[in-house]
Amino acid sequence: MSQEASGTVYAVVANDEEQYSIWPAHRDLPDGWRIAGVQGSKEACLDYIEVHWVDMRPRSIRTS
């Protein structure tokens, strides 16, 4: 059974460098990551990232 078929809810997460990813909402976040957006289907989370992560360079490079 695929993760989508199983009803997995994902969360948009970001790290200190403002890099985004998705993570299963029911799991503890890895160190260095925080909730940074919507929770929902994988597709909804990826759509959110596509709109909001407009500069893929790490924050440390953008601000130097």
List the helices and strands and how they pair.
Layout: E1 10-15, E2 20-24, E3 33-40, H1 42-52, H2 59-62
Antiparallel strand pairs: 1-2, 1-3
Commentary on this structure:
The protein is an alpha+beta fold. It has one domain: Structural Genomics, Unknown Function 30-nov-00 1gh9 Mol_id (Rubredoxin-like). Helices cover 23% and strands 30% of the residues. The chain contains two helices and three strands; from the N terminus they run E-E-E-H-H. It has helices at residues 42-52, 59-62; strands spanning 10-15, 20-24, 33-40. A three-stranded antiparallel sheet has the order 2-1-3, with helices on one face. The N and C termini lie far apart (46 Å). The mean pLDDT is 89.
Terminal residue distance = 46 Å
Shape: flat
User: Which spans of ≥5 residues are poorly predicted at pLDDT below 50?
Assistant: none
Please outline the major beta sheet.
3 strands, antiparallel
Give me the secondary-structure category. alpha+beta
CATH classification class: Alpha Beta
Helix % is: 10-25%
Widest β-sheet, arrangement of strands: 2-1-3
Number of helices: 2
CATH architecture group name? Alpha-Beta Complex
List its salient traits.
64 residues; 3 strands; alpha+beta; Rubredoxin-like; 30% strand; single chain
